[in-house]
Write a structure and sequence with these properties.
By secondary structure, the chain is mainly α. The protein has a domain at 19-51. The protein contains 2 helices and no strands. It has helices spanning 2-11, 19-50. The chain is rod-shaped and about 55 Å long.
């Protein structure tokens, strides 16, 4: 973890993450919650269709 944070710190010297790293960071943060909400939405639609 220390190595990764030092790499990120050196990359963000200019105060901005490069797009690929920022995108990967957003994906890593949002992916699980996105999948959870997608799954819930699918389940809800399936329930509605079944009834």
């Amino acid at each position: 973890a220390e190595e990764a944070s030092s790499i990120i710190r050196s990359v963000t010297i200019w105060g901005r993450l490069p797009e690929p790293i920022r995108a990967a960071n957003l994906v890593a943060k949002g992916l699980s919650s996105l999948f959870l909400s997608e799954a819930k939405l699918r389940d809800f639609k399936t329930l509605q269709i079944d009834e």
